[in-house]
Amino acid sequence: MNYKLPTKAIITDAGFASRFLPITKTIPKSMIPIGNRPVMQLVVEECAQAGIEEIIIVATKEGKPIYEDYFNNAVTNIKKQLASQNKQDRYAPIEKILNLPKITVITQDPSYPYGNGSPIASARDFIRNDEAFIVAYSDDVVFGESAVKDLIEAHKAHPDATAIIAGQVVPHEEIKKYASIDYDEQTMILHGLVEKPKPEEAASDLASYGRYLLTPEIFAQLDPKNTGLDNELWTADAIARLIPTGKVYVERTRGTWMTTGDPKNYALANLKYTLDNETYSEDVREFVKNN
């Protein structure tokens, strides 16, 4: 079956983010800022650039009201105050948020086990049976070209796809930190994923990261009984179970993927964003050079 092109995206942030405690006991991890915007906004904007019309954020119970407030609260009191001070330009970033695609925030179904596949399964009711959809992990950011757009373009080229996974080449010695993609370089069909291999045992230096184009066929594989390592429900395992009966493709995305999932890599991603985008980037370069 050929599925309609994606107009919806599921963005997940339903974990505990224990590596960022204590701040994540109060705010979701993806509300930590990159520049002057939270990580989650960067992921939402990437989806918007690709033409996504509706976004479902899967959050924790504590995070749900925070995301709802951030993306939907127009703070008219602040708008009035800025107008009275002739500083209306400072309200522009809020207008940008309010003009993003439709955003619905839900919580993960408590009946599902822990694991990165459970938030996706929790959003099942938002996906029609005839449409493909995007999944984005909110602790992965992509700078430059939208990976979501690349996945949608890949679906146009492969309308028979059961799923398409994003990949980026990493230094050979770094592949041990990721899932190495085993695929046919001519057809771009996925053979499998090798989780955190020794460099000499890696199928390739193409690493899988948190951008996927999926179809409703994935939901049968995201069954609570299909737990894997550490009794968790893994998206990668569900995709692998699609390989024998469908066509799973690989897309080498053009943007620069960086993870923000731990303090070190978050700091590096924040620095890259600052150096590439902020008006004070040269001041930061000078500070780093001299300190």
Would you mind describing this structure in some detail?
With 291 residues, this protein is α/β, with parallel strands linked by helices. It has one domain (8-277): Spore Coat Polysaccharide Biosynthesis Protein SpsA, Chain A (Alpha-Beta Complex). The chain is 30% helix and 23% strand. It is built from ten helices and 13 strands. It has helices spanning 39-49, 64-72, 76-84, 92-98, 118-122, 147-157, 218-221, 235-240, 263-277, 281-290, and strands at 8-13, 33-34, 37-38, 54-59, 102-107, 133-137, 140-143, 163-169, 179-183, 190-195, 206-214, 248-252, 256-259. The strands form three sheets. Strands 1, 4, 5, 6, 8, 9, 10, 11 and 12 form a nine-stranded mixed sheet that branches. It has a two-stranded antiparallel sheet with strand order 2-3. The chain starts with 7 loop residues before the first strand and ends with a helix. The mean pLDDT is 93.
Summarize the topology:
Blueprint: E1 8-13, E2 33-34, E3 37-38, H1 39-49, E4 54-59, H2 64-72, H3 76-84, H4 92-98, E5 102-107, H5 118-122, E6 133-137, E7 140-143, H6 147-157, E8 163-169, E9 179-183, E10 190-195, E11 206-214, H7 218-221, H8 235-240, E12 248-252, E13 256-259, H9 263-277, H10 281-290
Parallel strand pairs: 1-4, 1-6, 4-5, 8-12
Antiparallel strand pairs: 2-3, 6-11, 7-13, 8-11, 9-10, 9-11
